[in-house]
Each structure stands twice: as structure tokens, then as C-alpha cells.
Amino acid sequence: MSVLRFQIRQPSGQIDQLFIESERVLIGSGAHCEIRLPLDQAAVEHALVQMGPAGVFVQALSFNPPPTVNGIPFTQGPLAAEAVLGVGQFQINVTRAEGAAAQQAVGGAQPKKKGGASPVSLLALIGLAGGGYMMFFMDAKSDLDMTQYKAPELWGAPVAQCSQPAPDRAGAFALERFGVGSSLRERRPFHVQDGINAVPIFETSSACYRVARDEPAAAEAMAAANALRKEITDDYRTHRVRLEHSLQVDDLQTARREVKILLQFTEGKQGDYVTWLSNLDRSLKLKLGRPAS
Question: Is the pLDDT at 242 greater than 80, yes or no?
Fold first, then answer.
């Protein structure tokens, strides 16, 4: 197993060093990431560092903000020993270290090993001067109790306003929105986010039809929005119940499948529940003896 050495320069200028015994290290704000950065600096999963036969390789997983190598945004590519990986205001240097050298560098301590058999461990807690930030380095192990997390709502309040005040333009806009919503609704069985996005589009169509004084069309659009909202909400609740049951009976294969589905429902959302799902997905992969990806 490779040992990767990470030198991390914080926005304050402080430099911290961490050795991780793994060929795959996630950098992000998620609790499951091996290198965890503050939420305002990194996405839940921002970059993936991997060790291969040709050396260290890095892949961008989020572009808000875009990660950089030597100040230049990238998608994926090799990471030279002298290169600087930038994530938010953090600058990270990654090199390969032999196990003995790594232990000597940390005063004889064993480098961190990635694995799902041991409990979550806190390796470092660093307070950043003046910022109140914290950085955690944690194992890929999650708590299986889902009852402590509240699942996020899939939508906000229903759309009630039309952006087109003129009746003729509102009618044309409503027709166009209804067509878009109908197309997304058809794709919903293949991509749940299309169905989720269709709901406010149908609601917008209904609001604009009302501005255009076409009440039958407004009612049809609102009925489409309500039916789709109820259908998706019921599916969302069903998959959460299935996940809870599969965890209770230790059916890890089913649990992993349900986690994948729920991650599709919550795509783009943030919060403890989404972080927990991502953490659980990673933990289940480890428990099932499959390489994390």
C-alpha cells in the first residue's frame, strides 16, 4: 500500500503535514473525505488524488470554485511532486513516501490507514487564526443511524408568480414552459432530477397561464405539477424507508442500492443528511469488499 504525504498550507500561512496510507484520497468538505476542508472552501467532494504506476494523479470533482494545479484550473491529470494543488484558499503539495520514511517523519507514529473496520477517528483538528475554521481528517466510516438526520426537502415553496406581466407574452411563455416540463417529466424514470426540475416549471407555466387569463390551461399545468410532486415525494419517502429497513436487517446490498437512489434524489442539496448518505455509500463499499470509486 502506498503512503501519500500531504503538506497543506492554510489561508493563515500555517503548514500542516499528514501521511495517509492509501492509493485514493478524497479532498472536500464532506465528513467522509480523508482531507476535510471548510464548507466555504470546498464542495462535499472537490478533488480526488490517486496513486498509480506512473505516479500521483488528480481529478477535479467540483468546479465551484475550480481546483487548480500551479494556479491553473484543470479537469484531471498527473500531479508532479513539486506541483501545488489549490482548493479554495488552501494549497496542497502531494508526494509519495515510503512507509518507514513516513513513520520517521511523524516521530515513529504509524501513518493513517484507510479502511472500514475501525471507528471514525479524528486525526487532526486545526483552528485557523481569525477565521474560526476547522479541518478534520477522518476515516471512511459512517454511523448507520439515519434517524438523527432530517432529509432535505426536494422543493421550496410552489411558484406563484410569472415573470411576464403582459398577457400575450405570458401565454407564449406558459406554453413554452409547459413543453419543457412535459419533456422533463418523460425523462423522469431515467433521471429523477429531471422530474424534480419539472415541478417548478409546471408551476411557472400555470402562473403565466393565469396572467394570460387561460384558466383551463393554468389548471392543467398545476395538476401536472401537483401529480408529479406527489409521485416523487412518495418515491422519495419509500426509498428512505427501504434504506432504514435494510440497515436494520443488515442487508448491505439493498442498503447500497437505496443509498445510490437517494443520492440521485438529493443531488445538488447540502446538509447533514446528504453528507451522511455520501459517507454511508463509501462505508458500504468498504464493507462489501469493493474498491471505493
Answer: yes
